[in-house]
Amino acid sequence: IHLNARSIPRHKTLIEAESNKFDIITCSETWFTASHTKEDADLAYFHSPVRLDRSGQGGGGVAIYVKRHLMCKHRLDLHTPGLEAVWIETKLNKELLLVGSFYRQPSLGTNYWELVQENFRKVNNTGLKYIALGDFNSDFNFPSKHLLDIINTFQLHQLTNSDTRITDTSSTRIDLVLTQTPQIVKH
Asked: Which of 77, 111, 137, 166 is deepest in the core (most CB within 10 A)?
């Protein structure tokens, strides 16, 4: 599952109460900073999260929580400098799988999409199945050319089928699930 947390520290009790339903939780907008300890971030029954905090400013950040009964390996080799994204390797049904968590600030332009494309190229070159979840801040109801180029280049399927950010005046589908192998996702 993907959670656009908008502050894990503020919502940790609720997240922990719901976390038992899931084996892997990817999070965007964690709002963790360097001052948050391991204990601040940890959830019961999960490995310590693989996380990337935004340095020097508030907001943002990504993390991935994996239940302790699953293997969890942080894939540092898939890091792209300047990109708010982390990847882990795990094993599901005896098969290796890469899982990524992304956050894209809405104010970032074309250069950021180039970083996303570079990152997908690295992941694609591993030859492993993968799934990327996150807040891409590009409404898939009216997708940007840059997002569509990435989807087409890497033959990805976008699996989110309803709006994810709903307010009194708007609704958008900005939290996306991207994979080359949609059959690995049940819901």
From this structure: 137
